[in-house]
Design brief:
Elements lengths: L2 H5 L3 E4 L6 E5 L2 E6 L7 E7 L5 E4 L5 E2 L2 E7 L5 E8 L2 E3 L7 E2 L15 E5 L20 E4 L18 H6 L1 H7 L3 E4 L3 E3 L2 E3 L23 E3 L7 E6 L9 H14 L3 E7 L6 H15 L3 E5 L5 H5 L8 E4 L4 H4 L12 E3 L2 H12 L5 H9 L6 E4 L9 H4 L35 H20 L3 E5 L34 H15 L22 E4 L14 E6 L5 E2 L3 E2 L2 E7 L5 E4 L9 E6 L8 E7 L2 E10 L3 E7 L1
Parallel strand pairs: 12-13, 12-23, 13-18, 18-19, 19-20, 20-21, 21-22, 22-23
Antiparallel strand pairs: 1-7, 2-3, 3-7, 4-5, 4-8, 6-7, 8-9, 8-11, 10-11, 14-17, 15-16, 24-25, 25-28, 26-27, 28-33, 29-32, 30-33, 31-32
Helix pairs in contact: 8-9, 8-11, 11-12
C-alpha cells in the first residue's frame, strides 16, 4: 500500500484556528502550521509499526498565513510526526514532546531532525493551580535542573532529572525558600559546534583564535539558546515521558508550597506572538508560576497586558513601567511584573569588599521596593562567581573552558581575603566565612525579593570559573558534601530566611516613605551614623545603621512588629554606633551577627549640649554586620 493510498483512509477537510500545532479536537485531528515551502509543504505522520503517511498542504486549507486542516476518522492515538517544506524536513516548533535518545551534551546527527511525538494523555492535576505568592513574601532559589542533583553526593535516585528535584523537596522546605527558579528546561541544542566542523549560530560560538579551533563541539550546559520551547527536555527526565514527569514535579512543588519559575531565552528573531504563545502554554499545560524572560527583545508590554498572564510572575532584567503603561495606573490585583537588575549584584559586591563611594548606592538598593513591580535581588548568579568563589578569588580561572581564560567577565568585584583560591590559613578562612555571612545578610535584609544561587548556602565552589557554560561536570554540579552535617553557613541562611519570614517589617509590601506618617514618633525607616539620627553619607564612609520601626507592620495582621536596627560596617576598622532610643519598656537585643565574637549593647555616657546622658551603643568589628531587635 503506498503512502498516497494511506492518505485516502482519512477524510481531510479545512480546519479552523483552534490552536497552532497538532491537537485532538472533537471532529478529528487538527493540524495548524505556518511552515511553508516555495513549492510544497505538508506533514509526515509516522504511526507505530506502520509506514509513514505524507499529507500535503493545500492552499484551500489556508486561513490567513496558516494551513488549517482536520483529519476526521483518524485512527491513531499515538504517533510521531514531522513537517516538510520542499525537500527539507523540519520539526514542529509547537511540538510538545520530542523523540530523542541522545544523551545530554553528546553530538547527534544534525541532518536528522527529532520527531515530535503525539500521545494522548489526560493528566490529573488534582485541582492544582499556580500558587500566586506575592513578591514581598517570595524567596527564590536558582538552580540548574541537571546540575542540582547530578553529583553523586546529592544522594538522590534519579540524578539530574525532574524526579531528582522532587527527591530534594524536603531539603528545600527545610531551607525555607518559596520558589525554585530553574535555568532552561525546554528542548534546546545542548551542543555547541566548532564552526570549522559545523556551521552554527555565531551567537553561540565562544571567542577563539582562527588557528586554534581544535575542538569539534562543546556542551551547551546552561541552555541559553533557541529550542523547541513547548517540549520539556527529555535529557532531564528519568522516564520516557518528560511531559508527565515535569508535571509531576511542579505538582509536588505546589503541594509543598513551592512555586516553579522557568527561565526562557529568546533570541531577537523570535516573533512576539510566539513568545506569548509559549508563556501561555506553560501556564496552561504545566501550571508554572512565573518566567524569567531573557533576550534583547522581550515583548513585555504584550505579555504584561495579556489577561491570561495577569497572575503569572513576569521577570525581566529591567522595566520602565511609565512607558509600559503610558503612565496610567496598573490597577492590578496581583503585582506580577518583576525586574532583576544587575546593579544590585555589582554594587553590593563593591560595598562588601570595601570600595569607596558605595554607601548611598547600596542603602538605596536595600530599601528599594516600588509599588509598580517586584525587584529581584541577587549577589551571585550563574554568570560570575559563586558566593564561596566571590570571597576566594581576585581573578577568574576559566582555563578549563578552552578559551585561554579570555571568556567570562573580567570585572567580578571580588576579593580573595588574602590568598588566591584554596588555602589552609585559618585567619583567611575565617574572614571568608564572615564575608559570606555579610553578603547573605545584605541579600535577605534588602526589601526586594531575594534570589539565592543554589549551593551558596553551603559554600559550593566552581574553583574560580566564572563562566562554566560548557562544564557539565563537577565544576558546575552542586557538591553536596559541603552540606554534610549542615554547614555553619547553611544554618545561618536558614536562620536569616526564618527571621525575614517572621517579621513583615523586613519584607514590606510597599515602599518605605521614610516619614512618621502614623504619628508614632518614628519614621518607618531611618538612617544613622555613629551618632543616632545623623547618617554619614560621605564618599569615604563604609558604615551605616538602618532603623526599621515595627509599628508600621503587623504580624498576622494583629500584633505590631518589633523594631530592628542593622549596623553595617564594611570598613576594615571598628566603628561604634549610638543606638536610637526605643519606646519606654523596650530594650535592644542582638539577633545575629556575621562576626566571630558575641556582641551586646553597652550603656555609656555621652555629652549632649551641656548635659551628660546615658546612651546605648554597639561596637561593630571590622567587616561585620550586626542585627538588633527592640522588644
Amino acid at each position: 500500500m503506498s503512502s498516497r493510498e494511506k492518505v485516502c483512509k482519512f477524510k481531510i477537510k479545512k480546519g479552523h484556528l483552534y490552536q497552532i500545532g497538532v491537537h485532538r479536537v472533537q471532529d478529528g485531528l487538527s493540524i495548524v502550521s505556518d511552515i511553508k515551502g516555495k513549492k510544497k509543504s505538508g506533514i509526515i505522520i509516522y504511526p507505530e509499526g506502520e509506514k509513514e503517511v505524507r499529507i500535503p498542504f493545500s492552499e484551500d486549507y489556508m486561513i490567513g498565513d496558516l494551513y488549517c486542516l482536520i483529519l476526521s476518522e483518524f485512527p491513531y492515538k499515538n504517533f510521531s510526526y514531522l513537517f516538510y517544506k520542499d525537500h527539507e524536513i523540519v520539526t514542529d516548533y509547537y511540538g510538545r514532546l520530542l523523540d530523542s535518545s541522545k544523551k545530554f551534551g553528546s553530538p547527534g546527527r544534525k541532518d536528522i531532525p527529532a520527531r515530535c511525538i503525539y500521545s494522548e494523555n489526560d493528566y490529573d492535576w488534582e485541582e492544582d493551580m499556580p500558587l500566586g505568592i506575592p513578591y514581598h513574601e517570595s524567596i527564590l532559589y536558582k538552580i540548574h535542573m541537571r546540575g542540582f542533583t547530578m553529583h553523586a553526593s546529592s544522594g538522590v535516585k534519579n540524578r539530574g532529572t525532574f524526579a531528582g528535584l522532587v527527591e530534594k523537596i524536603p531539603y528545600l522546605k527545610e531551607l525555607g525558600i518559596s520558589a525554585v527558579e530553574s535555568m532552561p528546561i525546554y528542548e534546546f541544542e545542548d551542543v555547541i559546534y566548532n564552526p570549522s566542523y559545523v556551521q552554527a549560530d555565531e551567537a553561540l560560538l565562544p571567542f577563539l583564535d582562527e588557528e586554534k579551533r581544535t575542538w569539534e563541539y562543546k556542551v551547551n550546559y546552561w541552555g541559553y539558546s533557541e529550542g523547541n520551547y513547548m517540549a520539556p527536555k527529555r535529557a532531564y527526565c528519568a522516564t520516557d515521558r518528560p511531559d508527565v514527569e515535569c508535571k509531576d514535579m511542579i505538582k509536588e512543588l505546589h503541594k509543598n508550597g513551592l512555586e516553579f519559575i522557568m527561565q526562557i531565552y529568546f533570541p531577537d528573531k523570535i516573533r512576539p506572538g510566539f513568545i506569548l504563545d509559549v508563556c501561555r502554554f506553560w501556564v496552561k499545560e504545566y501550571h508554572v508560576d512565573g518566567f524569567k524572560l531573557m533576550g534583547g527583545k522581550i515583548p513585555i508590554r504584550l505579555l504584561a497586558t495579556d489577561p491570561y498572564l495577569k497572575k503569572t510572575k513576569l521577570i525581566v532584567e529591567s522595566l520602565n513601567v511609565k512607558d509600559l503603561y503610558d503612565g496610567g495606573s496598573l490597577n492590578a490585583s496581583f503585582k506580577n511584573l518583576g525586574a532583576a537588575p544587575a546593579a544590585f549584584r555589582y554594587d553590593t559586591r563593591k560595598f562588601l569588599k570595601g570600595d569607596e563611594d558605595m554607601l548611598s548606592c547600596v542603602m538605596e538598593h536595600f530599601r528599594r521596593n516600588p509599588k509598580e513591580h517586584g525587584v529581584i535581588n541577587e549577589i551571585t548568579s550563574y554568570e560570575g562567581f559563586t558566593l564561596a568563589d566571590l570571597v576566594s578569588y581576585d581573578r577568574k580561572h576559566n582555563e578549563a573552558n578552552g578559551e585561554n581564560n579570555r571568556d567570562g567577565n573580567d570585572y567580578n568585584y571580588s576579593w580573595n581575603c588574602g590568598a588566591e583560591g584554596k588555602t589552609r590559613k585559618k585567619q583567611i578562612l575565617s574572614l571568608r566565612e564572615q564575608q559570606c555571612k555579610n553578603a547573605l545578610l545584605m541579600l535577605f535584609l534588602a526589601q526586594g525579593t531575594p534570589c539565592l544561587l543554589a549551593g551558596d548556602e553551603f559554600g559550593n565552589t566552581a574553583n574560580g570559573n566564572n563562566n562554566p557554560y560548557c562544564q557539565d561536570n563537577a565544576v558546575s554540579w552542586l557538591n553536596w558534601k559541603h552540606n554534610a552535617g549542615q554547614s555553619v553557613l547553611q544554618k545561618f541562611v536558614k536562620e536569616l530566611i526564618a527571621l525575614r519570614k517572621t517579621h513583615p517589617i523586613l519584607h514590606m509590601e510597599d515602599s518605605f516613605k521614610m516619614m512618621d506618617y502614623i504619628s508614632c514618633g518614628y519614621p518607618d525607616l531611618s538612617y544613622h551614623g555613629e551618632q543616632a539620627w545623623y547618617p554619614e553619607f560621605e564618599n569615604y564612609s563604609h558604615h551605616m545603621g538602618i532603623l526599621y520601626c515595627g509599628k508600621y507592620a503587623r504580624i498576622n495582621k494583629r500584633k505590631e512588629d518589633d523594631f530592628f536596627y542593622v549596623a553595617y560596617n564594611a570598613h576594615w576598622v571598628e566603628h561604634e554606633f549610638a543606638l536610637p532610643k526605643l519606646p519606654a519598656g523596650m530594650q535592644w537585643q542582638v539577633v545575629t551577627t556575621s562576626g566571630k565574637q558575641p556582641v551586646k549593647p553597652e550603656l555609656i555616657e555621652v555629652a549632649e549640649k551641656s548635659e551628660r546622658k546615658q546612651q546605648y551603643c554597639i561596637k561593630t568589628a571590622p567587616r561585620t554586620i550586626v542585627v538588633l531587635t527592640g522588644k
